[in-house]
Amino acid sequence: MTTEKAVQKSSNEIVAGTLTRGEVATLKQTLAPQGINDAQFNLYIQTCAASGLNPFMNHIYAIPYNGTMNIQISVDGIHYLARKHPDYITASAEIVGENEVENFEAELVNGEFKILKHKIALPIRGSAVAAYAIAKRKGAPDQVIFMDRSEVSNMEKGRNPLWKSNFNDMFKKHVMKRALKAQFGVDIDDHTIDGVRDSVQENVRETQRKEIIIDENESASEEDLRTKVEKEIEDLMKAKSMSSDDVESLAMKQFEKPAKELTLQQLTGLKRFVEFHQPPQPKKKQEEAIEAEYTEITEPPLPEEPREQEGQKKPSVDEMNFDEFDFNAMQEEFPFER
């Protein structure tokens, strides 16, 4: 086996849950510059391994903040865990458009919602006025979560830009998260997470063992984190004389989407790219730098011949007297071969 093949085989070796050695190394290279230390990284990897969640599928995030770390499980991660349950049937979420209100019916019976009718209005559904999610499980009643738009107004007006740019998607994820937790909450919250921290190194400070948040970019703590990172990016922009367009270009280049649509973890990564970004010099400064580096060297001008004074005439060759000319002295000062 060649060295190259041996390295490739080692890189593809499963070492933590579903993660390969190469993927763990990639996560380490990505998270270490963001301020996550070895003990915190080990907690993150062990959580991934214990739950079966995959960071590369956006199931689970590690978010550093002032020396501590939050581990957040996305709605996609919760849904992934629910589908692994042997009694899982299905789960879905949908919005109710303002043009669909007349063809939508739901009722509340004994504290439980039931969706009786929902006819989709095409091609124009209108703005979302409500959303609902249904999580089904064998041997258990359906869990139905129904919310009108006013119930998420605080999130819509909050600091998370995704609620403004992708409202319908975030609204559906919000009700889906609630339905899944209501139907499979014990299994997700307890079975997959309990015991993970017991195996973490003892040198992890208790303040670093932040609660594992099962959320979709909605918690107040995450909004605070996002605001802090955005402020740090603004300060870096001022220090580096970068414009908003410069930062948007970095976001599109590195993440292929605008900065306002980045997740908190991606926004933290963007901050690092801004920190190491070297904006191009203005053309004038470039020319000055080149001119300073390659200064033109010119020969000093020859001394001017003495001008004839008025009334003075140059002697002819016959009139010149060489009797007092010291050729020996000239030879000493300007030697030449005879």
Order of helices and strands: HEEHHEEHEEEEEHHHEHHHHH
Radius of gyration computed on alpha carbons: 37 Å
**Beta-strand proportion:** 15-25%
Q: How many DSSP H or I helices? A: 12
The computed structural class is alpha+beta
Helical content class: 40-55%
Tally of separate domains: 2
Main sheet overview: 3 strands, mixed
Q: Would you tell me the overall average pLDDT?
A: 75
SS elements, strand count: 10
Widest sheet: strand order? 3-4-10
Shape: globular
N- and C-termini, Cα separation:
78 Å
Give start-end ranges of low-pLDDT stretches. Answer: 3-7, 186-220, 292-297
Biased composition (Basic and acidic residues): 304-317
Region (Disordered): 275-338
InterPro entries: RecT_fam (IPR018330)
GO molecular function, one term: DNA binding
Q: What does this molecule look like?
A:
This protein folds into 2 domains: 3-218, no CATH class; 219-281. With 338 residues, the chain is of the alpha+beta class. Helix content is 41%, strand content 18%. Residues 3-7, 186-220 and 292-297 have low confidence and may be disordered. It has a 3-stranded mixed beta sheet with strand order 3-4-10. The chain has helices at 3-11, 21-31, 38-51, 75-84, 153-156, 162-165, 167-191, 220-239, 244-255, 264-276, 283-293, 327-333, and strands at residues 14-16, 19-20, 60-65, 68-73, 88-97, 104-109, 112-118, 128-137, 140-148, 213-214. Pfam families: RecT (PF03837). This is Recombinase RecT. InterPro entries: RecT_fam. One of its GO terms (molecular function) is DNA binding. Residues 275-338 are annotated as: Disordered.
